Amino acid sequence: SRAQVYDNGKSTNVTFKDVAGLQGAKEEIEEIVEFLKNPKKYTELGAKIPKGALLVGPPGTGKTLLAKAVAGEAKVPFFSLSGSDFVEMFVGVGASRVRDLFKQAKEKSPSIIFIDEIDAIGRARGKNGGFSSNDERENTLNQLLTEMDGFGTNSGVIILAATNRADILDKALMRAGRFDRQIYVDMPDINERKEIFQVHLKPLKLSKDIDIDFLAKQTPGFSGADIANICNEAALIAARKDKKEVEKQDFLDAVDRIIGGLEKKNKIIT
Ligand code: ATP
Protein backbone atom coordinates (compact mmCIF):
# COMPACT_ATOMS: atom_id res chain seq x y z
CA SER A 1 0.00 0.00 0.00
CA ARG A 2 2.37 2.71 -1.19
CA ALA A 3 0.23 5.72 -0.49
CA GLN A 4 1.20 8.74 -2.51
CA VAL A 5 2.37 11.77 -0.61
CA TYR A 6 -1.20 12.76 -0.81
CA ASP A 7 -4.16 11.70 -2.85
CA ASN A 8 -5.75 15.12 -3.21
CA GLY A 9 -8.95 14.12 -1.52
CA LYS A 10 -10.34 11.89 -4.20
CA SER A 11 -13.43 9.91 -3.38
CA THR A 12 -13.08 6.16 -3.08
CA ASN A 13 -15.57 3.45 -3.89
CA VAL A 14 -14.13 0.92 -1.45
CA THR A 15 -16.74 -0.19 1.09
CA PHE A 16 -16.89 -2.60 4.03
CA LYS A 17 -17.95 -5.33 1.60
CA ASP A 18 -14.45 -5.23 0.11
CA VAL A 19 -12.88 -5.82 3.52
CA ALA A 20 -13.11 -9.53 4.36
CA GLY A 21 -12.96 -10.77 7.94
CA LEU A 22 -11.87 -8.14 10.48
CA GLN A 23 -15.32 -8.18 12.07
CA GLY A 24 -14.17 -6.57 15.33
CA ALA A 25 -12.18 -3.84 13.59
CA LYS A 26 -15.09 -3.08 11.27
CA GLU A 27 -17.50 -2.77 14.18
CA GLU A 28 -15.18 -0.37 15.99
CA ILE A 29 -14.50 1.75 12.95
CA GLU A 30 -18.19 1.84 11.99
CA GLU A 31 -18.66 4.52 14.63
CA ILE A 32 -16.23 6.77 12.75
CA VAL A 33 -18.41 6.43 9.67
CA GLU A 34 -21.33 7.59 11.83
CA PHE A 35 -19.34 10.60 13.11
CA LEU A 36 -18.62 11.64 9.53
CA LYS A 37 -22.18 11.10 8.29
CA ASN A 38 -24.03 12.56 11.22
CA PRO A 39 -21.81 14.70 13.46
CA LYS A 40 -24.77 16.62 14.89
CA LYS A 41 -26.12 13.51 16.57
CA TYR A 42 -23.02 13.56 18.78
CA THR A 43 -22.28 17.26 19.16
CA GLU A 44 -25.86 18.13 20.14
CA LEU A 45 -25.45 15.84 23.12
CA GLY A 46 -22.24 17.61 23.99
CA ALA A 47 -20.04 14.69 22.97
CA LYS A 48 -16.58 15.34 21.59
CA ILE A 49 -15.96 13.42 18.39
CA PRO A 50 -12.54 11.69 18.42
CA LYS A 51 -10.00 13.24 16.08
CA GLY A 52 -8.19 10.10 15.20
CA ALA A 53 -7.73 6.38 15.49
CA LEU A 54 -4.66 4.23 15.09
CA LEU A 55 -4.95 1.03 13.06
CA VAL A 56 -2.44 -1.42 14.47
CA GLY A 57 -1.45 -4.72 12.89
CA PRO A 58 0.99 -6.69 10.75
CA PRO A 59 1.71 -5.72 7.11
CA GLY A 60 -0.84 -6.61 4.45
CA THR A 61 -3.76 -7.21 6.78
CA GLY A 62 -6.01 -4.54 5.29
CA LYS A 63 -5.35 -1.36 7.27
CA THR A 64 -5.22 0.85 4.19
CA LEU A 65 -8.22 -0.94 2.74
CA LEU A 66 -10.21 -0.40 5.95
CA ALA A 67 -9.32 3.32 6.04
CA LYS A 68 -10.46 3.69 2.42
CA ALA A 69 -13.66 1.82 3.25
CA VAL A 70 -14.44 4.36 5.98
CA ALA A 71 -14.18 7.14 3.40
CA GLY A 72 -16.20 5.10 0.90
CA GLU A 73 -18.97 4.27 3.38
CA ALA A 74 -19.23 7.84 4.62
CA LYS A 75 -18.85 9.17 1.05
CA VAL A 76 -16.18 11.66 2.05
CA PRO A 77 -12.89 12.51 0.33
CA PHE A 78 -9.79 10.47 1.23
CA PHE A 79 -6.43 12.19 1.73
CA SER A 80 -3.40 10.06 2.36
CA LEU A 81 0.30 10.23 2.96
CA SER A 82 2.90 7.68 3.90
CA GLY A 83 5.34 8.21 6.73
CA SER A 84 8.11 6.62 4.73
CA ASP A 85 7.85 9.38 2.12
CA PHE A 86 9.15 11.84 4.69
CA VAL A 87 12.27 9.98 5.65
CA GLU A 88 14.57 11.64 3.13
CA MET A 89 12.94 14.99 2.76
CA PHE A 90 14.74 18.29 2.88
CA VAL A 91 14.41 20.40 5.97
CA GLY A 92 11.07 22.13 6.15
CA VAL A 93 9.41 20.10 3.41
CA GLY A 94 7.88 17.44 5.66
CA ALA A 95 6.27 19.96 7.97
CA SER A 96 4.89 22.03 5.10
CA ARG A 97 3.47 18.91 3.43
CA VAL A 98 1.64 18.09 6.64
CA ARG A 99 0.33 21.66 6.95
CA ASP A 100 -0.80 21.58 3.32
CA LEU A 101 -2.56 18.26 3.72
CA PHE A 102 -4.52 19.38 6.76
CA LYS A 103 -5.46 22.62 5.03
CA GLN A 104 -6.85 20.74 2.03
CA ALA A 105 -8.66 18.20 4.20
CA LYS A 106 -10.30 21.00 6.21
CA GLU A 107 -11.41 22.76 3.04
CA LYS A 108 -13.09 19.58 1.85
CA SER A 109 -14.46 18.47 5.22
CA PRO A 110 -16.01 16.18 6.23
CA SER A 111 -13.01 14.15 5.13
CA ILE A 112 -10.51 11.47 6.10
CA ILE A 113 -6.75 11.84 6.38
CA PHE A 114 -4.90 8.53 6.29
CA ILE A 115 -1.26 8.35 7.40
CA ASP A 116 0.30 5.04 6.45
CA GLU A 117 3.47 3.85 8.24
CA ILE A 118 3.13 6.57 10.85
CA ASP A 119 6.01 5.00 12.78
CA ALA A 120 8.40 6.44 10.15
CA ILE A 121 7.58 9.94 11.43
CA GLY A 122 6.09 9.09 14.81
CA ARG A 123 8.90 7.16 16.48
CA ALA A 124 9.57 8.33 20.00
CA ARG A 125 11.56 11.53 19.81
CA GLY A 126 15.21 11.44 20.81
CA LYS A 127 15.44 7.68 20.32
CA ASN A 128 17.08 7.14 16.99
CA GLY A 129 18.48 3.72 17.66
CA GLY A 130 22.10 4.76 17.24
CA PHE A 131 21.58 6.83 14.10
CA SER A 132 22.19 10.54 14.12
CA SER A 133 19.19 12.52 15.24
CA ASN A 134 16.77 13.32 12.46
CA ASP A 135 15.56 16.88 12.94
CA GLU A 136 13.39 16.80 9.88
CA ARG A 137 11.46 13.81 11.15
CA GLU A 138 10.95 15.56 14.47
CA ASN A 139 9.78 18.72 12.71
CA THR A 140 7.27 16.67 10.75
CA LEU A 141 6.03 14.92 13.87
CA ASN A 142 5.73 18.23 15.73
CA GLN A 143 3.78 19.71 12.85
CA LEU A 144 1.44 16.73 12.90
CA LEU A 145 0.83 17.16 16.64
CA THR A 146 0.27 20.89 16.15
CA GLU A 147 -2.25 20.29 13.38
CA MET A 148 -4.12 17.69 15.40
CA ASP A 149 -4.37 20.04 18.36
CA GLY A 150 -5.18 23.01 16.16
CA PHE A 151 -8.51 21.96 14.82
CA GLY A 152 -11.62 21.66 16.90
CA THR A 153 -13.54 18.48 17.50
CA ASN A 154 -16.22 19.70 15.11
CA SER A 155 -13.91 20.22 12.16
CA GLY A 156 -15.25 17.13 10.41
CA VAL A 157 -11.75 15.83 9.66
CA ILE A 158 -10.89 12.43 11.09
CA ILE A 159 -7.34 11.15 10.97
CA LEU A 160 -6.63 7.46 10.66
CA ALA A 161 -3.07 6.22 10.89
CA ALA A 162 -1.58 2.77 10.40
CA THR A 163 1.39 1.10 11.99
CA ASN A 164 2.76 -2.34 12.72
CA ARG A 165 4.93 -0.92 15.51
CA ALA A 166 2.63 0.83 17.99
CA ASP A 167 5.22 0.05 20.68
CA ILE A 168 7.81 2.47 19.24
CA LEU A 169 5.44 5.41 18.71
CA ASP A 170 5.91 8.65 20.58
CA LYS A 171 3.48 8.60 23.48
CA ALA A 172 2.47 12.17 22.62
CA LEU A 173 0.62 10.78 19.58
CA MET A 174 -1.57 8.60 21.79
CA ARG A 175 -2.57 11.38 24.19
CA ALA A 176 -6.26 12.24 24.64
CA GLY A 177 -7.53 14.30 21.74
CA ARG A 178 -5.02 12.76 19.31
CA PHE A 179 -4.88 9.06 18.38
CA ASP A 180 -6.65 8.05 21.54
CA ARG A 181 -8.27 4.99 20.00
CA GLN A 182 -6.47 1.92 18.80
CA ILE A 183 -8.07 -0.58 16.48
CA TYR A 184 -6.40 -3.97 16.02
CA VAL A 185 -6.19 -5.41 12.54
CA ASP A 186 -4.92 -8.94 12.96
CA MET A 187 -3.73 -11.71 10.68
CA PRO A 188 -6.69 -13.71 9.35
CA ASP A 189 -7.67 -17.06 10.87
CA ILE A 190 -8.84 -19.91 8.66
CA ASN A 191 -12.41 -18.63 8.39
CA GLU A 192 -11.25 -15.12 7.60
CA ARG A 193 -8.91 -16.48 4.94
CA LYS A 194 -11.94 -18.14 3.39
CA GLU A 195 -13.73 -14.79 3.28
CA ILE A 196 -10.67 -13.09 1.80
CA PHE A 197 -10.42 -15.79 -0.87
CA GLN A 198 -14.10 -15.25 -1.64
CA VAL A 199 -13.45 -11.56 -2.35
CA HIS A 200 -10.39 -12.14 -4.50
CA LEU A 201 -11.67 -15.20 -6.37
CA LYS A 202 -14.76 -13.33 -7.52
CA PRO A 203 -13.23 -11.69 -10.60
CA LEU A 204 -11.55 -14.96 -11.74
CA LYS A 205 -12.89 -17.59 -14.09
CA LEU A 206 -12.56 -20.73 -11.97
CA SER A 207 -12.49 -24.42 -12.71
CA LYS A 208 -14.90 -26.64 -10.78
CA ASP A 209 -12.02 -28.21 -8.86
CA ILE A 210 -11.53 -25.05 -6.79
CA ASP A 211 -12.42 -25.55 -3.14
CA ILE A 212 -12.20 -22.51 -0.88
CA ASP A 213 -11.92 -24.61 2.30
CA PHE A 214 -8.90 -26.34 0.83
CA LEU A 215 -7.27 -23.03 -0.17
CA ALA A 216 -7.83 -21.56 3.30
CA LYS A 217 -6.30 -24.68 4.87
CA GLN A 218 -3.24 -24.44 2.63
CA THR A 219 -2.44 -20.86 3.61
CA PRO A 220 -1.78 -20.55 7.37
CA GLY A 221 0.26 -17.43 8.14
CA PHE A 222 -0.81 -15.69 4.94
CA SER A 223 -2.09 -12.12 5.11
CA GLY A 224 -4.91 -10.66 3.05
CA ALA A 225 -2.32 -9.07 0.76
CA ASP A 226 -0.65 -12.48 0.30
CA ILE A 227 -4.01 -14.06 -0.58
CA ALA A 228 -4.83 -11.29 -3.07
CA ASN A 229 -1.44 -11.97 -4.56
CA ILE A 230 -2.00 -15.75 -4.79
CA CYS A 231 -5.29 -15.27 -6.62
CA ASN A 232 -3.79 -13.01 -9.22
CA GLU A 233 -0.66 -15.12 -9.55
CA ALA A 234 -2.80 -18.25 -10.10
CA ALA A 235 -4.68 -16.49 -12.91
CA LEU A 236 -1.38 -15.42 -14.52
CA ILE A 237 -0.04 -18.98 -14.31
CA ALA A 238 -3.22 -20.34 -15.93
CA ALA A 239 -3.04 -17.73 -18.69
CA ARG A 240 0.58 -18.60 -19.38
CA LYS A 241 -0.59 -22.19 -19.97
CA ASP A 242 -3.38 -20.97 -22.26
CA LYS A 243 -6.04 -22.37 -19.97
CA LYS A 244 -9.62 -21.17 -20.16
CA GLU A 245 -10.16 -21.55 -16.41
CA VAL A 246 -7.95 -21.22 -13.36
CA GLU A 247 -7.43 -24.65 -11.80
CA LYS A 248 -6.51 -25.93 -8.37
CA GLN A 249 -2.98 -26.73 -9.53
CA ASP A 250 -2.47 -23.10 -10.57
CA PHE A 251 -3.26 -22.06 -7.00
CA LEU A 252 -0.84 -24.62 -5.58
CA ASP A 253 1.86 -23.30 -7.93
CA ALA A 254 1.00 -19.74 -6.93
CA VAL A 255 1.24 -20.63 -3.22
CA ASP A 256 4.70 -22.12 -3.86
CA ARG A 257 5.81 -19.00 -5.69
CA ILE A 258 4.54 -16.71 -2.94
CA ILE A 259 6.17 -18.83 -0.23
CA GLY A 260 9.42 -18.69 -2.23
CA GLY A 261 9.08 -14.92 -2.43
CA LEU A 262 8.36 -14.58 1.27
CA GLU A 263 11.41 -16.67 2.14
CA LYS A 264 13.60 -14.44 0.00
CA LYS A 265 12.12 -11.36 1.63
CA ASN A 266 12.82 -12.74 5.09
CA LYS A 267 16.41 -13.49 4.10
CA ILE A 268 16.90 -9.87 3.14
CA ILE A 269 15.42 -8.63 6.40
CA THR A 270 17.43 -10.95 8.65
P1 ATP B 1 0.77 -2.33 5.07
O1 ATP B 1 0.90 -2.41 6.55
O2 ATP B 1 1.81 -3.14 4.33
O3 ATP B 1 0.56 -0.95 4.53
P2 ATP B 1 -2.06 -2.86 5.02
O4 ATP B 1 -2.44 -3.52 6.29
O5 ATP B 1 -2.35 -1.42 4.83
O6 ATP B 1 -0.55 -3.17 4.70
P3 ATP B 1 -3.51 -3.18 2.61
O7 ATP B 1 -2.62 -2.27 1.83
O8 ATP B 1 -4.81 -2.66 3.01
O9 ATP B 1 -2.73 -3.72 3.87
O10 ATP B 1 -3.70 -4.55 1.83
C1 ATP B 1 -3.13 -4.76 0.55
C2 ATP B 1 -4.12 -5.49 -0.34
O11 ATP B 1 -4.36 -6.81 0.18
C3 ATP B 1 -5.50 -4.85 -0.37
O12 ATP B 1 -5.59 -3.85 -1.34
C4 ATP B 1 -6.40 -6.05 -0.68
O13 ATP B 1 -6.37 -6.35 -2.04
C5 ATP B 1 -5.70 -7.17 0.06
N1 ATP B 1 -6.27 -7.36 1.42
C6 ATP B 1 -5.61 -7.21 2.59
N2 ATP B 1 -6.42 -7.45 3.64
C7 ATP B 1 -7.63 -7.76 3.12
C8 ATP B 1 -8.89 -8.10 3.69
N3 ATP B 1 -9.08 -8.17 5.02
N4 ATP B 1 -9.92 -8.33 2.85
C9 ATP B 1 -9.75 -8.27 1.52
N5 ATP B 1 -8.61 -7.95 0.92
C10 ATP B 1 -7.53 -7.71 1.70
Automatic annotation (TrEMBL):
Example of a GO cellular component annotation carried by this entry: plasma membrane
GO BP annotations, alphabetical order: protein catabolic process; proteolysis
Binding site for ATP: G57, P58, P59, G60, T61, G62, K63, T64
Start and end residues of each AAA+ ATPase domain: 49-189
Main location: membrane
Domain of life: Bacteria
GO MF, one annotated term: zinc ion binding
Keywords: ATP-binding, Cell membrane, Coiled coil, Hydrolase, Membrane, Metal-binding, Metalloprotease, Nucleotide-binding, Protease, Transmembrane, Transmembrane helix, Zinc
Subcellular localization, as worded in the UniProt entry: Cell membrane; Membrane
Subunit architecture: Homohexamer.
Function: Acts as a processive, ATP-dependent zinc metallopeptidase for both cytoplasmic and membrane proteins. Plays a role in the quality control of integral membrane proteins.
Family to which the UniProt record says this protein belongs: In the N-terminal section; belongs to the AAA ATPase family.
Protein name: ATP-dependent zinc metalloprotease FtsH
Species in which this protein is naturally found: Taishania pollutisoli
UniProt lineage: Bacteria, Pseudomonadati, Bacteroidota, Flavobacteriia, Flavobacteriales
Gene encoding the protein: ftsH
Segment of the intact protein contained: 194 to 463 of 700
